[in-house]
């Protein structure tokens, strides 16, 4: 386990690959290495946790469905703008 101070504020390639880590898109050994680093580095663990929260909020918001009245209103405005432009 390493800490940020000895790594130049975590500019090393393991932490730069946080998104790949979260996506599970790394080799098993790279996943283990980054996990070990996160376990020993509060600064990077905080960055990891923040990214997890952001991903969760984005994922949740992508499942929300707009009300049909809003969709109709937007389509009406688009149609109106097309008629005005011609």
From TrEMBL:
Which residue ranges does the record assign to the Putative zinc-finger domain? 16-45
Q: Which is one Pfam family of this protein? A: zf-HC2
Q: Per UniProt, which keywords does this protein have?
A: Transcription, Transcription regulation
- Coiled-coil stretches are none
- Give the InterPro entries listed for this entry: Anit_sigma_mycothiol_RsrA (IPR024020), Anti_sigma_zinc_sf (IPR041916), Znf_put (IPR027383)
Record's protein name: Mycothiol system anti-sigma-R factor
Q: Which organism is it from?
A: Arthrobacter bussei
